[in-house]
Write a structure and sequence with these properties.
- By secondary structure, the protein is of the alpha/beta class.
- The N and C termini lie far apart (about 55 Å).
- Strand 9, helix 3 and strand 10 form a beta-alpha-beta unit.
- It is about 20% helix and about 20% strand.
């Protein structure tokens, strides 16, 4: 899709989602002189930081996106959870409640004039290229008025997050087990677990957190994981750690070590799928086992380079990376910098992915950064000629990324202060 707009015409941007990614994408599009419309399916901004008692469907029959639960605090310090030039306001604690994160995003949105661009309770139904391939046709449901409206945009920024569609393992015996099965997406508080025997599957930040929270009410909790080294954290006495599940039985599970145990509840904390149900099949995007392709630098749609995805990479410093991705994309979309040819973008992408596969990474890890995150950030900044992420942010993220697995009960008591672009100190 080649956009040959005349210079005096304002570029129009569709931003899908008003969470962490959508807000910074809208901000940079606005600051580049664009005309921005943000479609947000919820009645307020904040994305995953909005607490919603509802599970399954909302009042309009649409899947509830939020995975937020009562009492949730950040699992990274606020010093690295703001945007590069717009940090979270100073306060005593580094690990802050979800309500404070939401307050920050509302302040950010108002400060940059984004809020007035957001159409709340508007659900994107379909995005497809127009026949001349010069614009995007976007069909949206205005939920409160139950009306369908069609819009046209020069650019689309997909910012719908990836903590909304649960990914469930396909264990033998799934249909045999007679207890309750749930995904962490539907966890809201620990009250329903009084007296229950609970298996939590998955030892990422959510699984660890849920095992600990549920243990306060449950009779006993088992945390199943496939980590090479088991978490070092000390859990309460009623929590035990086990290896992977081999299969489910009527009353519980058999683990890969051959032992078995009974449970009244199984809670899957097994991650989420990347899904874009609103993209028509002719958008040039396919998703295979969580590998979204083909994208230039994990964000720009190579087939139609007037569409971008903000926030796909994981094991990253999320808000900082999303802001960098947004600046990267807008640098090209605004016309300030010229994108490489489609062939050059494909070659660059193929080279990177071959390097990933050579390191033994699977398709489902196509957007995983972790140890590669610094290289990715620097590549984005260098390619677009934008400011890189500050060294102090990278350093602090590396220190804190896996603190939850070392000391789940106490790690949120750590407090940090950033001194300058290179230096932070730990203060308690």
């Amino acid at each position: 899709m080649v956009n040959d707009m005349v210079n005096d015409k304002k570029r129009t941007y569709c931003v899908i989602g008003a969470g962490t990614a959508g807000l910074c994408a809208a901000r940079h599009a606005l600051q580049a002189g664009g005309e921005v419309t943000v479609f947000e399916m919820a009645s307020q901004l904040g994305g995953t930081w909005v607490f919603n008692e509802q599970v399954d469907k909302n009042e309009y029959g649409i899947d509830v996106h939020s995975s937020m639960y009562k009492g949730l605090k950040t699992n990274l310090p606020k010093e690295i959870m703001g945007y590069p030039d717009f940090p979270i306001p100073e306060q005593e604690s580094s690990y802050i409640p979800a309500e404070d994160m939401l307050r920050f995003f509302k302040y950010f949105s108002d400060f940059f004039g984004i809020t007035e661009c957001i159409k709340f309770s508007h659900y994107v139904i379909r995005v497809k290229p127009t026949k001349d391939e010069k614009q995007w046709e976007v069909i949206v449901r205005d939920c409160p008025n139950d009306e369908f409206k069609t819009y046209y945009f020069d650019y689309v920024l997909v910012c719908n997050g990836h903590y909304h569609t649960p990914k469930l393992p396909n264990y033998p015996g799934l249909g045999v087990y007679k207890g309750k099965q749930m995904h962490s997406h539907d966890y809201r508080c620990n009250d329903p677990f009084v007296g229950e025997t609970v298996l939590v599957i998955g030892a990422g930040p959510s699984g660890m957190d849920l095992a600990y929270e549920i243990s306060k009410k449950a009779e006993r909790v088992t945390l199943s994981h496939h980590l090479k080294d088991k978490p070092k954290t000390v859990f309460p006495d009623n929590v035990t750690l086990k290896n992977d599940v081999a299969r489910l039985t009527e009353t519980g599970v058999v683990f890969t070590d051959g032992t078995s145990q009974d449970f009244s509840v199984i809670c899957y904390s097994t991650g989420y799928k990347y899904t874009f149900p609103f993209l028509s099949c002719d958008c040039g995007i396919i998703v295979e086992d969580n590998y979204v392709q083909k994208l230039y630098k994990h964000c720009i749609n190579i087939r139609y380079p007037t569409m971008a995805f903000i926030g796909l990479p994981y094991y990253v410093c999320a808000a900082q990376m999303m802001d960098l991705q947004a600046r990267f994309c807008i640098k090209f979309f605004s016309g300030e910098k010229q994108l490489p040819s489609q062939e050059e973008m494909e070659k660059d992408t193929n080279t990177e992915m071959e390097e990933r596969w050579s390191r033994g990474m699977k398709k489902r890890q196509a957007h995983m950064m972790g140890p590669q995150e610094d290289r990715y950030y620097d590549d984005l900044a260098r390619t677009a000629g934008v400011d890189p992420i500050k060294p102090v942010i990278k350093k602090l993220h590396k220190l804190c990324a896996f603190r939850f697995s070392e000391d789940l009960v106490n790690f949120r008591k750590d407090n940090f202060r950033i001194i300058d672009d290179e230096t932070y100190v730990k203060v308690n």
